[in-house]
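FW: tagging you since you asked about this chain on Friday. Here's the raw sequence from the shared folder, copied in full. Didn't touch anything.
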Amino acid sequence: MTVTVDAEDPSSRDACALIAELSAALTAITGASGQASFDVADVRVARTCFAIARDAAGRALGCGALRPFEAPMAGVGEVKRMFARPGTQGVGSAVLNFLEQQATRLGYTALRLETRRVNERAVAFYERRGYRRIANYGRYVGNDAAVCFEKVLAE
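HL: got it, structure written out here
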């Protein structure tokens, strides 16, 4: 399947549909939608990106977001709202690759993210793509259900 990924409006109909599907999937897996840790405004400032993957017919297949990490870590970005519709092969990798390329272009030297320990597919996905487990950060400190990752980006 041919997949293209581009930066798009996080408030578009396709973006909203993908985010809603992600929230439903996360609720089924973890009991929480994850919506409390992301706002569309997060990707409407400098050094951010909201990406949508599409097939050759233009159908939205997945999404992901990149935002600055909390201060004072100016060189670190955070990956949020990663999602690929069920049954799509390579979509998550395509979105993550795009976000990593954008992060490098925007001057980030590393990316961080959080997922839930119970979301074993996501944990394995990030580990296969070179993300290493780190101590929980920010709002996830002390949350045993969360697992945090970091990847140093190639220069």
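FW: The chain has one domain: 4-152.
HL: agreed, and The first strand starts at residue 4 and ends at 7.
FW: great, closing this out.
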